[in-house]
């Protein structure tokens, strides 16, 4: 893929913002999108959230979060884990419900759906230094707009990529959220079992070493 092709696929994301149904269709069926662009936007969201934690004016920061305690790995996982949980749960579910989208399509479309967060959050960092506390409502409205716009694109991408009706899409999205919870529970349960097994084997090892 050339730089020109990558650039075209990147700027194609801006078309999705305003005509999502038509352009998500082109993204999948006319190969207008690129997985690499979707992953680039995912990485950009991580950078955006780190910048927001570090550079937003303190009066708009969560008082429970100290910028000095920022952990880049934790921040990255806070984006990556929900993103891929969504993709995996959606793929598992739509595979059983005759969805047309592949796992690659889901990751790519979900990546493009993150664009509103990037476009709104970066200006919000700058605006936080000009807004007063009395204007916090405008700040919160813009922040909410980014999240609502993103969730709307996730919804439309699911409907278009899998060629579902509106009613079926609602059901699939709700079941995907439930599936994310189930996968998280299974992973945590499995991790707990691994830790217990490790502790048990290690205790036996120490006992044997002590006796020998």
Description:
This protein has one domain. The model has no long low-confidence stretch (mean pLDDT 88). 79% of the residues lie in helices and 0% in strands. It is globular. It is mainly α and 212 residues long. The termini are far apart. The chain is built from 8 helices and no strands.
Summarize the main sheet: none
Integer-rounded radius of gyration? 21 Å
| Global morphology | globular
Domain count, please report it: 1
**Tally of individual helices:** 8
Low-confidence stretches: none
- Provide the succession of SSEs: HHHHHHHH
What is the structural class? mainly alpha
Fraction of helical residues? over 70%
Mean pLDDT across every amino acid position: 88
Strand proportion: under 5%
How far apart lie the N and C ends?
Answer: 62 Å
How many E-type strands?
0
Could you outline the blueprint of secondary structure elements for this entry?
Layout: H1 3-18, H2 20-29, H3 35-55, H4 72-96, H5 103-112, H6 115-127, H7 136-161, H8 166-211
Pick out its properties.
8 helices; mainly alpha; 212 residues; single chain
Quick rundown:
The protein has 8 helices and no strands. It is mainly α and 212 residues long.
């Amino acid at each position: 893929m050339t730089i020109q092709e990558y650039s075209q696929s990147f700027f194609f994301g801006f078309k999705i913002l305003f005509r999502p149904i038509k352009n998500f269709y082109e993204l999948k069926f006319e190969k207008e999108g690129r997985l690499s662009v979707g992953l680039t936007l995912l990485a950009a969201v991580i950078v955006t959230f780190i910048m927001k934690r570090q550079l937003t004016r303190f009066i708009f920061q969560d008082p429970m979060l100290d910028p000095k305690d920022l952990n880049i790995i934790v921040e990255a996982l806070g984006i990556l884990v929900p993103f891929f949980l969504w993709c995996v749960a959606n793929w598992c579910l739509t595979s059983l419900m005759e969805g047309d989208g592949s796992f690659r399509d889901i990751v790519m479309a979900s990546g493009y759906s993150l664009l509103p967060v990037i476009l709104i959050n970066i200006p919000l960092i700058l605006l936080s230094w000009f807004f007063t506390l009395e204007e916090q409502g405008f700040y919160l409205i813009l922040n909410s707009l980014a999240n609502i716009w993103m969730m709307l694109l996730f919804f439309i991408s699911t409907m278009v990529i899998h060629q579902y009706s509106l009613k079926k899409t609602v059901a699939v999205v709700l079941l995907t959220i439930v599936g994310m919870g189930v996968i998280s529970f299974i992973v945590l349960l499995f991790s707990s079992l691994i830790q217990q097994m490790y502790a048990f084997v290690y205790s036996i090892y120490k006992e044997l070493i002590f006796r020998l």
